[in-house]
Design goal:
The protein has one helix at 2-19, and strands at 21-30, 35-42, 46-49, 52-61, 70-78, 83-91, 100-101, 105-115. By secondary structure, the protein is α+β, with helices and mostly antiparallel strands.
């Protein structure tokens, strides 16, 4: 009986991990319109926002028994000047420590999670 339950649990977890993608939730502000956006960026996929191309390489969340912290490694490229304007780690608990401050857009990390 215990082996059947363990097999069912393992099968569920494997199915869940195959169909769920790791994503980074980012907050982005477009200063030209004053609007705020919540972006869901899948890992290692480019997402276009305004004149920026966002790419999240890694996104980690501390275990539940640790202090709440999410940290992600991002690259952000400006389409107009065709250069990287941000490459580094962002931390959800300290957005002012390492966020993108751009003349038109601001971007910072909110959360790392799995999305269906």
């Amino acid at each position: 009986m215990l082996n059947k339950i363990s097999l069912c649990t393992l099968a569920f977890l494997l199915t869940f991990s195959i169909f769920c993608k790791d994503i980074a939730e980012l907050r982005a502000i477009d200063r030209s319109t004053g609007r705020s956006y919540k972006l869901k960026v899948p890992l290692n996929q480019e997402l276009s926002f305004s004149n920026l191309i966002l790419n999240v390489k890694h996104c980690y969340k501390n275990p539940i028994d640790k202090k709440i912290e999410n940290y992600a490694y991002l690259t952000i490229k400006d389409k107009i000047i065709n250069e990287y304007i941000f490459q580094g780690w962002m931390f959800s608990s300290s957005p002012s420590l390492s966020s993108l401050e751009h003349p038109i857009n601001d971007v910072w990390l909110l959360n790392c999670k799995k999305d269906k």
